[in-house]
Amino acid sequence: MKKNEEILVNEGKMLPLMEEFYTIQGEGFHKGTAAYFVRIGGCDVGCHWCDVKESWNAELHPPTSTDIIVKNAVQYSDVVVVTGGEPLTWDMTELTKGLKSKGAQTHIETSGAYPLTGIWDWICLSPKKVKLPQQMVYEKAHELKCIIYNKSDFGFAEEQAAQVSEDCILYLQPEWSVRDKVVPLIVDYVMKNPKWKVSLQTHKYLNIP
């Protein structure tokens, strides 16, 4: 990364863009709805089951002007989902200001591991054990999505649910590679604890990006 690009990235005027695409939201509260996804590179949370490990190294993804990202996004949709990687690694202020100025709804999918920046209509918090969320992200989250890989994850999910607001919608989602094993456990748990809902990666079942 060139020095001038590094300065602009640190200011949030450029971002390491991994990919951007128009598709159907597959998970959580907005599943089944059309949205434009902006995947930002860079993440040091390091979940072993991450299905986009190629996003971790920000150096692999070209710094792209936020103005260009905004221009591309609003051509397709008025709902823009910013994901990663971990998007809050970077300052999201300029990107979201640009999107909001064009009338877009701004959604983010985040582990919450870094301070909350940007203007968000919807915050999906998916906390990870190795790097817990910042307090402000807990307070602002609209939905909590806890990934279930094994039985111990239910206890972690309850710990996280205790941190979010009463209005936050609670989801348990099977980790894809062990879904056949954990889906019955999740179904049983939700039936016993109906404050939770089941989230599935429906885009994978539909075979879409």
TrEMBL record:
Class of this enzyme: lyase
Gene3D superfamilies: Aldolase class I
Cofactor note: Binds 1 S-adenosyl-L-methionine per subunit. Binds 1 [4Fe-4S] cluster. The cluster is coordinated with 3 cysteines and an exchangeable S-adenosyl-L-methionine.
Residues that hold substrate according to the record: I24, Q25, G26, R39, T83, P209
Domain of life assignment: Bacteria
Annotated function: Catalyzes the complex heterocyclic radical-mediated conversion of 6-carboxy-5,6,7,8-tetrahydropterin (CPH4) to 7-carboxy-7-deazaguanine (CDG), a step common to the biosynthetic pathways of all 7-deazapurine-containing compounds.
Protein name per Swiss-Prot or TrEMBL: 7-carboxy-7-deazaguanine synthase
Organism: Aquimarina addita
Upper classification of the organism: Bacteria, Pseudomonadati, Bacteroidota, Flavobacteriia, Flavobacteriales
Gene: queE
